[in-house]
Amino acid sequence: MAESVSRALRDGALDGEHAPALAIKDSGDSPFGLAVFSHVLTQLASNVLAGKSQSRFVVLDCYTDPLGWKERLMECGSITNSSPKVSVNTSLCKDIRDLDKLFSLILQQGKGFLGEGKSRFSVAIDSEPGLSGRKAHGGGSLCLIDERADLDLMSNLSLGKVSEMLRHTSTSSVAGLISNLRSHNLVSCVFWLLHSDFHEIRVAAALEYLSSMLASIEQMTRPNDVPRDNSQNISLLEHNYRRGKFHVRFKRRNGRVRVMSEEFQVEQSRIKFMSVSSEDGTIAQSLVPKVQFNLQLSEKEKVDRAKVVLPFEHQGNGRSIDIYDGRRSLNDGKSDTMPASSEKVQTNEDSGRGEIIYFRDSDDEMPDSDEDPDDDLDI
Amino acid sequence: MDRSSSLLDEALDLDGLTTPSPSQPARVVLVEDCVETSGAFILHHLMKRFLSPHSSNAVVFVAFAHPFSHYERILRKMGCNLVVQRDNNRFLFFDMLMLECPGLDGGVGQSIESGLFALYGKIQKAVEVSSLAESKRNITVMIDDLSLMEVAANGSSNHVMDFLHYCHTLTTQFGCSLVTLCHEDIYSSTERATIPLQVEYLADVIIKAEPLASGLATDVHGQLTVLNKGFYDGLGSSRSKMRNFHYRIKENIVEYFYPGSRT
């Protein structure tokens, strides 16, 4: 499912349609939005890299100096060291508050690439500390987006934390920026990260309306159900910080909405997605209370159980068995001959088998079953 | 005492904090405390660790809560002389109590920003100077505390977050660590407590100092819950872990122990 998100972003915009937009939403209880964000980014980057001739990227860095403080300090001469350039293609955005300027800066960056004769460019706006942090520390796992030779004049665009932008500007202007980007014919896809608990519900909803895909990240279990101070709760919380639920809502052009769920696990700075069903089984298994008795059967035990022949099934080896009910000699026409002959045959064939042979004393005698067994008792 | 005090160190992964290594990115530590249980002792503990004589690490301390003499007295009892460290340029103290309190002169919006901007300029300058002095040193920026900083900024959490954002850029630019203290229950009534939430997102390590859930006890002063996210590390200890233990503050030291391991 995470792949289908990447695929949709990779495929980009159709002619006459807005670009696909992905909103990644997380909350403080399960703060893995950044991990998902960089997963999407790397997927997109590797997709782009796979079908291209040259690799380059532009980073518009809104993280290092969003308000222009550093620039002002440098002008005063009080600091000297400007931020180290991570890549040659990095440019700084020095005023995140002016989104119109930001928009034109994005387009300018993109068009700059087109001017060099490249057919496709991508811009990652990085207001995200974690991303540039890892770049600076040589994490190496992150390759940003590049242009692609074989596609139209479009760009992939990833906005880092929209939350950071929303802090500086109004909802409407951020929504305006996103919508402008989506409808611009050079942009092939847009995605951004939103921390839902920073904002009012209507703000989050407004941005969700602008997206064609919404990936929301939730924690596995709610710790509130458990008393606060026991050790189980701690391990539960710890569990929540390693894994979570991943819901994606796709909105199709025709208005159909599809919701899918997955689970993910964070390991070694990577994020691994897995289907829910496999996970459910193990959870159900672990929910069975621990008792001394073995409630589950192993495979071998199941096979052994199937082999066991039930009582009466084994007598006669598949042939139907006549059980003498004491009446047959009376009712059957061949009653005179049968008892003796059948006795003979049986003794010849199955000499090894134990057998009870019973001859009734007389036909007048009533069958045993009709007698009252307690007849002789004097009650 | 050595064994028990290592409980906090172990949970914090302090060796990673104090010795910079290329695979270990800078860390952001958030200490959250309550009215009943002050988290200041954790700051003191960290300060002492960072200024230990075996290392050449430096601390840039931004104090909104107490004057220098306060910290100096406490740290002296713990066996660390701040005056000497200050003279060695390993401890840089910014007293924000009175005179440099930002935003009190002139118009409101612009002056708050300019006040914090000036403070940030000083911090970055200090960090630059001390990182030039010795290349391998790890610099820690400590802010005591964010809540009072918000008060100083006339309650504008946006400006405080801007300031913190810039402090955070220092962690990527210079490999600094950032340690902040925040009072949690000031924000408990508001629906969206921006500052603690935002810092929690930024933080790699969150330390919560809370009173015992079972009520007051004479020999246990509170409990610490340490969440070490650490999943962006390069190698090794990359799993997030969570520890919970009790503590007891004594005259000079703090004892840490697991619940139930004391009678």
Automatic annotation (TrEMBL), chain A:
The keyword tRNA processing applies. Residues 362-379 have a biased composition (Acidic residues). Transmembrane segments: none annotated. One of its GO terms (cellular component) is elongator holoenzyme complex. InterPro entries: Elp5. It comes from the Eukaryota. The keyword Ubl conjugation does not apply. Residues 320-379 are annotated as: Disordered. It is found in: Cytoplasm; Nucleus. Pathway: tRNA modification; 5-methoxycarbonylmethyl-2-thiouridine-tRNA biosynthesis. One of its GO terms (biological process) is tRNA wobble uridine modification. This is Elongator complex protein 5. It comes from Escallonia rubra.
From TrEMBL, chain B:
One of its GO terms (cellular component) is elongator holoenzyme complex. GO terms for biological process: tRNA wobble uridine modification. Pathway: tRNA modification; 5-methoxycarbonylmethyl-2-thiouridine-tRNA biosynthesis. Pfam families: ELP6. InterPro entries: ELP6, P-loop_NTPase. Belongs to the ELP6 family. PANTHER family: ELONGATOR COMPLEX PROTEIN 6. This is Elongator complex protein 6.
